[in-house]
Hints:
- By secondary structure, the chain is α/β, with parallel strands linked by helices.
- Helix content is about 45%, strand content about 15%.
- Helix 9 runs parallel beside helix 10 (about 245-265) and helix 12 packs across helix 14.
- The longest helix is centred in the N-terminal third of the chain and has 22 residues, at about 70-90.
Amino acid sequence: MTMAMPRVLFFNQTGLYGGAERSLYDLVTNYPGHCRVVLMQAGPLYDDLITAGVDTPVLGGGFQRATRRKWITLTIRLYSPIVVAIGLVRLSRGYDLIYANSMKAAVIAVLTKPFHRRKMVWHLRSLLIPEHFSPLARLVARWCGNWGADLVIANSDATARAYQSNGGKCLPVRAYNGFSIEKFRPEKRAELRAQLVVEHGLDPTHPIIGMIGRIGPWKGQALALLGLSMGTDWQLLVVGEALFESENFRQDFHESATRYTQTCNVFCLGHRDDIAEIMGGVDVVIHASTLPEPFGRVIVEAMLAGTPVIATNGGGVPEIVQNGVTGRLITPNSATALATAIEAALRETEQSRSMAVAARRYAEQHFALELTLPPVWQALRTMAAQSDGTENAPAVAAGAHESSIKG
């Protein structure tokens, strides 16, 4: 007899797209049972989920507005989580599990657990290390995992190790992020490159370097600008926005990019939806995070696109890239190391091409959605089956849909 799939209420604090939100979209739109998504803020993720036919209520969205009066801002910040918590408890009726997709979501789900009385899954997508989190934040994370979470899922072995080093008592279930590999067309790289040249007025005879992802203080864009200045004819495409950062950081980055643009051919494209096409059109993709990365979605996307990749050696990145075989790993926070690796990738074309082919094959074998999602579904089924009562027994059968990934 096939074990039924639990009814899952997915919970995330933002409707803006980061790596965690892109993975959440894949989880939800491929879930082989009944589910719903709760967000604390509307945005592109909300729009895409609604378009995909996923019921996605937004809680506390009306309390996200900005104001110059500090006492009003403080009141909003205190009141909004209360509204969200009440709404989460109300919406949890009829569901077996609450699936927190972020730390903020996990905190609210744990605090309200005495009221919703549902099992809680925490998908941990951050490295709980001092470089990323304050002592208080790590203490709260330890409390969430040890007291409230019935299951912790980590997006890499590095994330799982950091969780346990932080005092986590359980061994998290490791589940790599998955990707729709059919979106990437390495056989069309020449065509995609020509499209980029025309669209952005690039010099087709000069190398095109791509840096794709959220712009942030530790994501390495400033380091990339410095490394680029060491080249003679490189063209850098910076794709992404400073979604979760302060307005001051956003302005500082664009001012720096403008200064470099005058001498170093920097093109800031902002947010783009055609990431697979851009990945396939550049000559090299660089990942230059100055701090350890929990996983590294951009790296896998570059591998699937058949593009040579250069990545910072730290966190979960070595679980994705084997140095000299599927890509080049560099020392963190070194503009010189980055520039040297770029020069090598462009000079040693045959080796770079060979590594790109091996990287594509490796990514297909380890990060395809049809490989990464079933272990998550199995973990949810197993946990839901351990429920003592029958009030919240799973009601939606998994059947043959478990291994079928939706397009």
